[in-house]
Amino acid sequence: MMRPFEIPEILSLICEQARKFDLARLLTTSRLFFDCAVPVIWRSLPESAPMILMKLLPDADSYLKHNLDAALAGSLQPLDVQSLVRFNFYAPYVKQIARHRRNKQSNIIWDRLLKLVDTRPILPKLEVLKISLSVPSRNEIPDPVSYLSAYLSPTLVEIDHVRNTFTSMEPEWLSYLVSVVVQHCPHLHTLKLSNATRYTVLRPVHADELAKSLGRLRNLRVLGLGQATLAPKVLMALGALPNLESLTISETSGSWGLGETSKMTDDSLPHGSFPALQYLGINFVLEALGNERIAQIWDVTTLVQRLTFVSVCISGSATRTQIHGFVYAMCRSSPSITALSLDYSDSAGEVGLISPGMIDVLAQLPLRRLWLWGKVLHDSRPPWDGERFALAFPKMEDLRIRGHCFGFKDLTFMAKDMPQLQHFSAKIKMNKGWPSRDEVFSLAPRPSPSQMYLLQMARPTPIYETEIHHGLPNDKIEAIAA
Questions:
Q1: Which domain of life is it from (predicted)?
Q2: Residue 31's beta-bridge partner residues?
Q3: How many domains does the chain have?
Q4: 31 plus 53 within the same structural domain
Q5: Where on the phi/psi map is residue 438: left (φ > 0), alpha (ψ -120 to 50), or beta?
C-alpha cells in the first residue's frame, strides 16, 4: 500500500495548500516530498532573504555577527566552489526577492553575501525583483545600477519599485539603468519605476537613450516611468511596442515632459500606435489657473481609443469645471472603458463627489466597475439623485464610493436598477429616513449573491470621512486589467 507522501498528486496538493513553515518541517519525510516542496518553499523569499541565503554557507554564523557593521564586508574574500555547494543547489529555486535601501541590516548582510558569492547573477533563475531605491536624508536616488546589477538575469521578467518616495532618480541614472536592464533582462514584461521617477524630467540626450532602450523590450506589457513617459520620443517608442497593455504616467506641478509647450494631437504618434494598450494610470496636478496639459492625452486617439480601464488621481487646486471637463474628454475619446477609478480626494479645491451632469457623462460608458474617491461636502454639494445614479449604470458589478453617504432609498434604487451588482463599498446614513425592521421585512427581500461592505457611523450627522478603501493596490488593478 502506497503512503500518502509517495503519491505525486497528493504531494502537489499539500505543497500548494500548506504553509511554508509546515512544509519546511516535513522536508525530511521523503526524497519525493523534498523534491516537491523545495521549489515552493524557496520560490519567494522575504526581506530577510540575505540572512536566509547566508545560512547556506559554511561558518554562516560568523558572517551574521555584528550585523550593523558595514566595514566587515570590505575584508571578505570570495568562497571557493566547494564552500558554495549548498548555496548553488538552492539559489536556482529562488524566483522572487525584495531589497530595500532603507533596511540597513538587510543591506549590510547583502553586501557581505555578494562579496562571499561572486557569481553573477547571484540568483540565476530570479524572475521578480521588488525594490526600493530611496535613501534616508538624501534628496536624490544614488547609483541604482550598482545596487541592482547583481540580481539582473535573463530570467528576470518583473522589476517593481514598490515603495513610494519623495526623492527621484536623476535623468542620466534613469536612462542608464533602463539600458542595463534591457541588456541583461531581454524577456522583461513588467517595469514599474513610477515611485522613483515621479520628479524626473528628461533632457533631450537622455530621452533619446531611454527611447532606444525601451524600444528593445518587445515583451514589455506593464510600464510605469512617471513623467519621463511624456517625452515625445519615449512616447513614440512605447507606441511601437506590440504587447504593451498597461501604462502609468504622471505630471508634477510646473513640468511637462521635456518642458515643451506644444499640444499633443493625433499627429503626435503614428497611426496604429499602442495596439494592445488597455490600462492607463494617471497621477497629475490639476491647477485652478487653467493648467490642463495632461488632458491633451485624450486628444491622441491612437493612445486612448482602445482603453478599457482608466485610473486617475488628481491633486492640486482643481475646480469642479476642470474635473468635469477632464472626465468628459476621457469618456469622449475612450468609449470602451468598463472600469474607472477616479480619485480627487487630495484636491485642494471644493469639489463634491459627482453632479447630475457627471452622472450623465459617465453613463455613456459601459461601466462595470466604478471607484470614486472624493470629498464629503455638506453645504455646497449639488443635490444627489439616487434613482438617476442607479439607472445610469445598469451593468455595474463593483461599486466603491468614498465621499458620499447613501440612504435607504438609494439602496432600494440600486437593488432595483443594478441587478448585476456584486460588490458595494460605501457609507450608509442611518437616520430618520431609515425604515423600521417591520417595514424592511414587508418589502420581502430576496437572497442576493452581492457582497456589501457597510461602515456603521456612531452619529448620523455630521459625518466626517474616515478611511475605507483609499484607491486600489497594484495587484487589484492588474487583476482587473487582465
A1: Eukaryota
A2: none
A3: 3
A4: no
A5: alpha
Name the one residue in this structure whose C-alpha cell is 524626473.
200
pTM score > 0.70 for this model?
yes
Peptide bond connecting 142 to the previous residue in cis, omega within 30 degrees of 0: no
Q: Which residue has the cell 487583476?
A: 479
SS3 327: helix
Q: How far apart (Å, rounded) are the C-alpha atoms in residues 264 and 230?
A: 10
Same domain (yes/no): 442, 357:
yes
For residue range 178-209, list pLDDT tens digits in order: 999 999 999 999 999 988 887 788 889 999 99
Asked whether 27 and 33 are in contact (CB, 8 A), the reply is yes
Is 118 in the same domain as 236? no
Of the three residues 79, 101, 126, the one that is the final residue of a domain is 126
Contact partners, residue 426, CB within 8 Å, separation at least 6: 399, 400, 401, 402, 404, 405, 406, 453, 454, 468
Task: Give the per-residue pLDDT at 52.
Answer: 94
> Phi first, then psi: what are they for 216, rounded to 5°?
-90, -10
Same domain for 33 and 54?
A: no
Count H helices, E strands: the chain? 18, 15
Residue after which a domain boundary falls, among 95, 126, 157: 126
